[in-house]
Each structure stands twice: as C-alpha cells, then as structure tokens.
Amino acid sequence: MKTLREKFLEDGFLVFENFNTPDECEAVMRRGKELAEEFDYKGNASIFQTSEQTKTTDDYFLASGENISFFFEKDAFQADGELKTDIFHSLNKIGHALHDLDPVYNHFTRSPQMKQLAGELGLQDYLIIQSMHILKHARIGGVVDIHQDATFLYTEPESCIGFWYALEDATIENGCLWAKPGGHRTSLRSRFQRKSGGGTEFITMSEDPFIAEDMIPLEVKKGTCIVIDGMLPHYSLPNTSGKSRQAYAIHTIDKHKHYPKTNWLQRDLSSLSGF
Ligand code: FE2
To answer: What does the alpha-carbon distance between residue 231 and residue 32 come to, in Å, rounded to a whole number?
Structure first.
C-alpha cells in the first residue's frame, strides 16, 4: 500500500473528492461575488482598459501579491470603455493574497482537513505564498494555456505545490483541468520574472515542447481538492458551456528553499505562514 506522499511523487497530482462541503464552497463563492461588487473598477479604469502592457497595468499586477486585486477577462470591455456585462461576470480572477487578508478565504485555506492533508504530505515547512479565486464564467471564461506552476513560483531547488479546489463541478464542457499522470517528471520550460527595467518576462529554461495529446481531463465534482506538483504541465480549455466553473487555488513553497528576488511575486517571506 502506497502512502499519499509516494502516490503524489509517482503521479504528480492527487484528487480528493468531498474534501470541502457544499456550504464551504458556497461561502467562498459568495465572498468572491461580494468583493467583486465592492470593487471600484471605474476609479481604476485606466489600469484595465488597455490591451497593451503599460506601466500602470504592470504595477497593478506586480502589487497583487500583497493584496486583493481584480483581473478582467480579455474581452470584458466594449470599445467605449464600458463593461459588456456586470462587474462580477467580467472578471477572470481575484488574487493573490486572499488567504492572508480575507477571513472567509483564510478559513477555507486553513481548514482542519487541509491541516491534516498538509501533515500527511509532510508539508510542515511549507508557506502559502499565493491564492486566487478563478471565476471561469459561463461562455466568457477563457483558456489557460499549458504551463507549470513552478514557472511562476520558482524556488531552488523546485518545491512549489498547488492546491486546486473545485467550488463547482468541473467538466470538459466548462473547462476542467487537464494533465498527464507522471507528467511532472520533466524539465521546467520557463521562469516568469520581473524585468530589471520594470515589467515582467518569461525566461526560457528548456526548449522541450509541451505535449497536450496524452493529457487526460480531470472532471471533478464540487468540493474536490486536487493537489498539483509545481512541475506538472496542465491547462484548461475555455468555458463554452452555460455553467460557470469557479475554483479556488493556492500555491505553497518550502521555506527552506531559495526564493529568488527576480520572481514576479515578491512577498515578505518572514510574514508568511503555512496551514
Ligand atoms: Fe496552474
């Protein structure tokens, strides 16, 4: 009989059904909607209403590691700068310090079942460095291209582990995750860094192509938790269905590994905590 840790090392991901109750999922979804509706996007319009990477947009993104920020779907705005639909349904995600700044997300993140799972996986020395509420609304929710989470949360040596919680059923139609069992035993393709002159850039680490063909859909029910190795290539398709696919995700790193100052997300590591 394999331990959880052995199975995780073998497959690069783990799936736990009924990890959170429907009520726990609802509480997070309710809070996300509240935050979105309280967000004064008109006062921040210049940040969002541009398709180019401007300094203001960059600064807003780079500061999001320390606060609760709002990110729009690519086609959320009309030509005249007004939203095509209401604010909540225009957003792609909310991040990246929800777990430290908002009691509802903190409660969900540091639940008794998470403390137990983290213990079983041996993550006593892991810090929760990032959280995101991914909205993936019906028909508007966009694609997330194949990537490795370690690209965004790089440590030396690599230690990133993600936890992805289905707040609603995730199906092929509404854009569930896709990955390949064992796919984490591969090279890191790139690192996403702060550029010295401002802004961000991807640095290529390996030219190996990602192979999507042998990935399988991880269709899961509401309340499921998927643990993802930071090296595991994964993606999700656009939501073409009439049902939203909300998810909450957090990322953790080993506090004993080196976290470069060039990583896009910079936090005061001494202020971070685990489960
Ligand atoms: Fe990811």
So the answer is: 28
Domain at 4-271: CATH architecture: Sandwich (2.60)
Cα(167) to centroid(ligand 1), Å:
16
- 226 CA to centre of ligand 1 in angstroms: 11
pLDDT in tens, 65-85: 999 999 998 888 888 888 999
Instruction: Give per-residue pLDDT as tens, 237-257.
Output: 999 999 999 999 999 999 999
- Using the mean position of ligand 1's atoms as its centre, give its distance from the Cα of residue 80 in Å: 33
CB 133 within 8 A of CB 248: yes
Does the global pTM surpass 0.85? yes
